[in-house]
Write a structure and sequence with these properties.
The complex is a heterodimer. Chain A is α+β, with helices and mostly antiparallel strands. Chain A has 15 helices and eleven strands. Chain A folds into two domains: about 200 residues, Metalloenzyme, LuxS/M16 peptidase-like (Cytochrome Bc1 Complex, Chain A, domain 1); about 180 residues, Cytochrome Bc1 Complex, Chain A, domain 1 (2-Layer Sandwich), CATH 3.30.830.10. Helix content of chain A is about 40%, strand content about 20%. Chain B folds into two domains: about 200 residues, Cytochrome Bc1 Complex, Chain A, domain 1 (2-Layer Sandwich); about 180 residues, Metalloenzyme, LuxS/M16 peptidase-like (Cytochrome Bc1 Complex, Chain A, domain 1), CATH 3.30.830.10. Chain B has 14 helices and eleven strands. Chain B is globular and about 65 Å long. Chains A and B meet through helix 2, strand 5, helix 3, helix 4 and helix 10 of A and helix 2, helix 4, helix 9, strand 10 and helix 11 of B.
Chain lengths: ~425, ~425
């Protein structure tokens, strides 16, 4: 049980405080309700580029990292399709430094040309390092537009192409900031040996003076229901063929979310899972195989991702995956099978709660999705999925016309 | 409020060290216990002198280690996997250069189930032929994929050239996958998975009864042969200093620079940690500031001083825009030259001191973190004293010492330079 208190400033900033007396550190997390899904389709990769610019100095403080390192702090950030999240851990005594730095960059950035110029280059190198100069790196870039025809989840956080990042202008940067970065679009969570009064005073002092801003309203359309099986075939210079499949599922607040997460676990979480045993160990069709959910806020995907063994054809591999689905739909779960994946999730969550940073991030995320207290109901949400609900959901999701497939094949000439 | 003025801050003062309980088991295992935390969890970590340095053929140590989770007398591979998953246990295995590790993470309430597995796989491992072939074919595939990555290619050459003449230098070839057999694993296990060379770490939140049970169960693991030792390291002279592997179509080059230094037991090791932090050990380091934050050549660049049983080394690692490969090498040299000629400002040194102390505090947060930190010293027969000295060095080192160290250990003509990609 994670006990916490919650309050809101007049400008709309929500603040969550969880006291953990066992640590000399404090975790400070701020989540902005803006992600790659809020981007203009012609200017993708922007939310993530923007995250980089948040470290290029703010209106009153020339460097973000420097003063934090000076007080023994460490920080980082990440962007996904739904959110942008910034976090710090630092010695508890120096908590005020985090308030000072984080509030100044919410107030306004420095917006220097140099910072934009350099971070554009850094992000282009990140694009190359993780997506282009890496075998299989572009699979997600190819895959998203196949599964999503309408929803902005059709592009990756890094962006559709390098040119979108190259063409980003200072005007784009400023308008993005003022329409998404605002106290009324953020949640702050603080975890450590701190009291609510202490945090309240610091929050009022540093964030209180920042005005509420007019936010850009979300206008994108939800993805219509898929009605036909989709397939894309590409050839690349890689050592082995790869298969990716995706099925539409609900979003994080939808009723089927936990059942679908458990469904992916039954197929591939751990070496006792169905597909690991059958397709990796017994039939030896894949060298690695993973089934997982995207975990997105709007309706997401259950994905299958595997690398084939030599001399296995892609059609044979895909067919074998379908057989695994049919086997479950036809014969149902084995005794204890659902219990097993539930136990594993419970254990994973207990270990995750050992970290103050994980607790701070999850409190912020759950609050953004509706209620921070759902952090304490998560295990129960998984436990309460009945065998019947599990099977009904599996039948709804694992259908051919709900599926998109990528055959990522090696060039014949590859040694 | 004047937002341009930083709030007052405190220097990191008291750091709480959990003093581990220490004892030997009847079979010679040395054990340490770290009790603390709010969650009812246990970690049991066994460190054996069974790393790659002891193998007489490639893949032996890693395969022996990995196959331990693929079946034993009382647990077929399938049953073992089923039990681990059902009780939410996590078994993590690894074989590095010096040590092979087996770690079990368990909710305290399921520790009996975890011990059943842990003890069985270390007493009666099957090294099943079928499981071995499966493992090898999967690992071979992964190796082929890795060989497409400039980072991996650079690492491989770096390892071979840095440790030339020593068993640390061995690198994997695809043909090695044809030459490893069941007997190689059995003999390696017999010789090197010895309880009396095993260092055990038990950490988490549990009562005395549970601890007693853990001891009793671990004590049943038997062993026989003599202690193993690692050949001494002598530096071989190397005429060549630049090693370039071209990769067609590469957009980035993998870069590794480095040289042999010394390990944790050397008197300058702590001071070198400070020098390394300044050079490339954190986000605000000189290399990051110059090559990422000023030039934008890379997504990241870093350096590290690494300790091994027989020696230690400095390494600088990055993946950079292929067109800027040479410029990156030049800028690295330039940064080292600056360290050798100019004294670090008191402002920067102060920042590095506080950052390092903060980092240490993060590495000491909770029983698991404390036990990991302690173990890194314990594997060299050092204890908390080592960290007290490190803290002392961080707090007191002077600018002139840092410049002297740069001149003594970072001469640019003593570095090997490895590039994979395009230049």
């Amino acid at each position: 049980m994670i006990t916490f208190e919650k309050f809101q400033l007049n400008n709309g900033l929500k603040v969550i405080v969880h006291q953990d007396k066992t640590t000399p550190l404090v975790a400070f997390n701020i989540v902005y309700n803006v992600g790659a899904k809020d981007e203009n389709p012609e200017k993708t990769g922007f939310a993530h580029l923007f995250e980089h610019l948040m470290f290029g100095g703010s209106i009153n403080i020339p460097s973000y990292d420097e003063p934090l390192e000076r007080v023994g702090g460490s920080n980082n950030a990440f962007t996904n399709n739904d959110i942008t999240n910034y976090y710090e851990t630092l010695p508890k005594d120096n908590l005020e430094t985090a308030f000072w730095l984080e509030s100044d960059r919410m107030l306004s950035l420095a917006f220097t040309d140099k910072s934009l110029e350099v971070q554009r280059q850094v992000v282009i190198e990140e694009f190359k390092q993780n997506y282009l100069n890496q075998p299989y790196g572009d699979m997600s870039l190819l895959f998203r537009p196949l599964a999503y025809k309408t929803h902005p989840y059709q592009w990756s956080t890094i962006g559709k192409e390098i040119s979108h990042i190259e063409n980003a202008t200072m005007d784009d940067v400023k308008s993005f900031f003022y329409s998404h970065y605002a106290p009324n679009n953020a949640i702050l969570s603080v975890v450590g040996d701190v009291t609510v009064d202490e945090v309240k005073a610091l929050a009022e002092k540093y964030f209180g003076p920042i005005d509420k801003r007019t936010l850009k309203t979300r206008t994108y359309a939800q993805e219509p229901q898929q009605t036909e099986y989709r397939k894309l075939v590409v050839h690349r210079d890689v050592p082995a063929d790869a298969l990716q499949m995706a099925f539409h599922m609900g979003g994080k607040n939808d009723i089927d979310y936990h059942a679908t997460d458990l469904l992916s676990d039954v197929f591939s979480n751990g070496k006792s899972s169905r597909m690991y045993r059958a397709l990796v160990q017994e039939q030896q069709l894949f060298s690695e195989l993973d089934v997982y959910i995207s975990g997105s806020h709007d309706p997401g995907l259950l994905m299958v991702n595997g690398k084939l063994m030599p001399n296995v054809s892609i059609d044979q591999a895909e067919e074998a995956v379908w057989q695994q689905f049919e086997e479950l739909l036809l014969n149902g779960l084995k005794p204890n099978e659902l219990q097993k994946v539930k136990n594993k999730i419970e254990s994973t969550l207990v270990f995750s709660d050992m970290s103050i940073l994980n607790k701070a991030m999850n409190l912020g995320l759950f609050e953004l999705l509706g209620d921070a207290n759902n952090i304490n109901k998560e295990v129960e949400m998984y436990k309460s999925v009945s065998e019947k609900a599990f099977m009904d959901n599996a039948k709804k999701i694992l259908r051919k016309e709900n599926c998109s497939v990528l055959h990522y094949l090696k060039n014949e000439t590859h040694g | 409020m004047d937002r341009t003025i930083a709030p007052h801050y405190k220097e990191i003062g008291h750091i709480h060290f959990i003093e581990p309980q220490s004892f030997n088991l009847a079979n010679g295992m040395q054990a340490l216990v770290f009790k603390s935390g709010t969650q009812e969890v246990v970690k049991i970590e066994l460190n054996f002198k069974a790393g790659t340095v002891y193998q007489n053929k490639n893949l032996q140590a890693a395969t022996c280690n990995a196959l331990l989770r693929e079946g034993s007398q009382n647990f077929s591979a399938e049953k073992l996997a089923e039990q681990l998953d059902f009780y939410g246990l996590f078994l993590s295995l690894s074989a590095e250069k010096d040590w092979a590790k087996i770690s079990l993470y368990s909710l305290t309430k399921h520790i009996d189930k975890g011990l059943d597995i842990l003890v069985d796989i270390l007493t009666y491992p099957s090294f099943d032929e079928h499981q071995l072939q499966l493992y090898l074919s999967k690992t071979r595939q992964r190796f082929k994929m890795d060989m497409e990555k400039v980072k991996f290619i650079a690492n491989r050459t770096f390892n071979a050239e840095l440790f030339r003449g020593h068993t640390y230098a061995k690198v994997l070839e695809e043909d090695d996958f044809n030459n490893i057999h069941r007997e190689d694993l059995i003999s390696f296990f017999k010789q090197y998975y010895q309880p009396k060379d095993c260092k055990v770490v038990i950490a988490g939140q549990f009562n005395e009864q549970i601890l007693y049970k853990i001891k009793k169960r671990l004590e049943t693991i038997n062993g026989s042969s003599n202690s193993s030792s690692i050949p001494a390291f002598t530096i071989q002279s190397n005429n060549q200093s630049l090693f370039y592997t071209e990769k067609k179509g590469a957009m980035q080059s993998g870069i590794r620079l480095g040289k042999i230094l010394f390990n944790k037991t050397h008197e300058d090791y702590a001071a070198m940690q400070v020098l390394n932090t300044i050079l490339g050990g954190y986000f605000g380091s000189r290399l990051m500031k110059n090559i990422r934050e000023d030039k934008g050549y890379t997504y990241g660049i870093g350096s590290a001083v690494v300790s091994l049983h027989a020696t230690g080394y400095l390494t600088i690692v990055s993946e950079v825009n292929a067109a800027n490969t040479q410029q990156t090498l030049d800028e690295i040299d330039k940064e080292i030259k600056v360290l050798q000629t100019d004294l670090i400002s008191s402002d920067e040194l102060e920042k590095v001191r506080n950052y390092m102390l903060g980092q240490f505090l993060r590495n000491m947060d909770g029983a698991f973190a404390q036990s990991d930190t302690y173990t890194e010293a314990w594997l060299y027969n050092l204890n908390w004293e080592y960290y007290h000295r490190l803290i002392q060095t961080i707090k007191t080192i002077q600018a002139k010492q840092i410049r002297d160290l740069s001149n003594q250990y970072l001469q640019t003509d003593s570095l090997i330079r490895v590039i994979a990609g395009k230049m």
